[in-house]
Each structure stands twice: as C-alpha cells, then as structure tokens.
C-alpha cells in the first residue's frame, strides 16, 4: 500500500515577503523532499494550497485504510525534508498509520496539525 506525501507548493512562511521572493517556501521544501526521495512504499505529489496558510509549510501523509496526518510549521531545510520522508516511511510500514512517538524523527516533533481517521470502505 502506498503512502502519499502531498506537499503544498504555495506555502509562504511569515516574513517571506522580506526575502528574494523567487520561489515560495513550499516550492523550496517540495524540491528538497523530491531531491531526497527514494523509491519504496512512498509517492510524492505537489498541490497548490492545502489551506493551512498560518501553519506553512504544510504537507499531508496519507494512505488508504490508515490514519492520515497534516503537518506544518516546517522550515524549508534538508533536515525537515529528510524527517518528513523518514516519518512517511514509518507510516507506510505501520498497519494502521500510527507510529509510536519514540520512533518519530526529532525534526517532525511539534509539527503535527491534524490527524484524520481512515475513510470508511
């Protein structure tokens, strides 16, 4: 079963306007995740707007029949990208989508925004 990482590529963190404004923070994070991505039970996609603007940078981790999560407030850094991929791999390996806290990568802690129950079959 595939776990999907959906990355908002329109997210802008507070103060974005003060920077070069060439790319959004979401685009930077998406590129970092894509460049660190390796095949497995994971798939990536970009979307324009997850409607979590006050939480940017936002991503979701989803799989059919499993708990799904929205995470945000990431800095667009290689460390955040790696932690997102590492957590998603743990999600993919979990039968229910729930990953014990002690297994979470440090860089993922404090970034959970919502948890969604699996959709009924």
UniProtKB/TrEMBL annotation:
InterPro entries: DUF1636. Pfam families: DUF1636. It comes from the Bacteria. This is Metal-binding protein. The lineage of its organism: Bacteria, Pseudomonadati, Pseudomonadota, Alphaproteobacteria, Rhodobacterales.
């Amino acid at each position: 079963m595939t776990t999907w990482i959906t990355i908002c590529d329109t997210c802008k963190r507070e103060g974005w306007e003060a920077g070069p404004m060439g790319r959004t923070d979401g685009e930077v994070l998406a590129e970092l995740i894509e460049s660190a991505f390796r095949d497995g039970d994971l798939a990536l996609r970009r979307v324009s707007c997850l409607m979590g603007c006050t939480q940017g940078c936002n991503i979701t981790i989803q799989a059919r029949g499993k708990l799904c999560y929205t995470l945000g407030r990431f800095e667009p850094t290689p460390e955040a990208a790696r932690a997102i991929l590492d957590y998603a791999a743990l999600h993919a390996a979990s039968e229910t989508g729930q990953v014990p806290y002690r297994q979470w990568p440090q860089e993922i802690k404090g970034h959970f925004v919502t948890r969604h129950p699996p959709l009924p079959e």
